[in-house]
Amino acid sequence: MKQILNIAHYEVIHIFKDRILLLIVFFVPLLYAALFGMIYVSAILQQVPLAIVDLDRSAASREVISTFENTPNFKVIPAVNTYAGLEQGMRDGTVRAGVVIPEDYAQKLSSHQLNEILTVYDGSNLIYGLNTRKYFQQVLNSISAGQTAAYLAGLGLTAQEITSVMETVSFRLQVWYNPTFSYATFIFLGFVIMILHQIGLLGIGLTVTREKERNTWIQFMSAAVPAWRIFAGKALPYLITIFFNYILLLWVASRFVHVKIGGAVALILLLGLLFSIIIVSLGFIISLYTPNSLQATRYLMLLSVPLFVLSGYTWPVTHIPAAFNGLARLLPFTWMAEGSRMVTIKHWGLQDLAVTLVALAVFAAACLFFAATFSKRRNPPAQTGLEVNGTVFYPGKR
């Protein structure tokens, strides 16, 4: 028992001497919990953007519109009031659900004929889809019950007549983009992007630190080789590997996990190429300015959870605090996650994807510039921090 306590005491001293490890052990769990709490602070998804197409324009149809306007679950977008506008709004995310009132709605209602209100909602995001379906059922059941109550207020009806009145308003549901509610289609592509992001960064992120620990980085620094060539030679194998894995994982997702992978192949490949360039460039930069492999691994490990949560891939960005949305737009992962989903599920074209492609291209150009123009001046060895492969003793100090 004494030996166990001695080892434990040594480990505690080790933790408190290493500031990064201290943060990971004691503060990062709290930080992640706080981040999740702020992201999901709304708890209940309400104010779903809704477009109403009123083809009847009668008093009865205006009552339907009023019912939707008076529920906290929907937020009616007045500017979208045509079917073409509804389609475009659903495509670009301006609206997430739609109601189409038929042109003979009031006439059929007055004659107690079967009446059908078309409701559509966006199934590409299951959080929106499942909640919207429930909200539609609640509102339309309320409309039907209201019609029944108004009719029965002044009439004495038989059971058969009451049944007839109860069925005067019905609705037909259509799920767009993800009609089977496949959770794999909803989430798996995000996991693929995160795997590529983290593993790619980890691979390229250890290239320079490994050379530093083996004292071989000085050979590159003193060689008559431009910095950009050093970067290109170091990064090229990882760029090819990451891009190959991107294609392979998409094929696996489609072939074996049955994820919906649609859209233009050229756009899907272009997204993957830009993202691969960003990963290798950013990883090389991290490796340049990180003292050793252990530190680089720790920094990269801390990226995964915040990036995935902030991207809005699992929770609608409309219900994430604005400050976090602004931060997310500064991260390449957010643009890649959003762009890949829109292309593969909603079949976005080049025009739809223009902003995303420009953003990724800017990120790629900036990372390439800083990676390829690093200074070849040798910095003094780090005086603190744990080493990997630097000595036969562990932990070691420089």
Structural class by secondary-structure content: alpha/beta
Number of helices: 17
**What are the segments in which pLDDT stays under 50 over at least 5 consecutive residues?**
388-398
Count of DSSP strands: 5
Helix content: 55-70%
Shape: elongated
Topology as H/E string? HHEHEHEHEHHEHHHHHHHHHH
Largest beta-sheet details: 5 strands, mixed
Average pLDDT rating: 82
Terminal residue distance: 33 Å
CA gyration radius, whole angstroms? 28 Å
Biggest sheet strand line-up: 2-1-3-4-5
User: In percent terms, what proportion of residues is strand?
Assistant: 5-15%
Number of domains: 3
In short:
Helix content is 62%, strand content 8%.
Molecular structure report:
By secondary structure, the protein is α/β, with parallel strands linked by helices. It contains 17 helices and five strands. It has a five-stranded mixed β-sheet with strand order 2-1-3-4-5, sandwiched between helices. Strand 1 (48-54), helix 3 (59-69) and strand 2 form a beta-alpha-beta unit. The radius of gyration is 28 Å and the shape is elongated.
Give the topology.
Elements: H1 2-17, H2 19-39, E1 48-54, H3 59-69, E2 74-76, H4 83-92, E3 97-101, H5 105-110, E4 115-122, H6 126-153, H7 159-166, E5 169-176, H8 183-205, H9 207-213, H10 217-222, H11 227-255, H12 265-289, H13 293-301, H14 304-310, H15 322-328, H16 332-346, H17 354-372
Parallel strand pairs: 1-2, 1-3, 4-5
Antiparallel strand pairs: 3-4
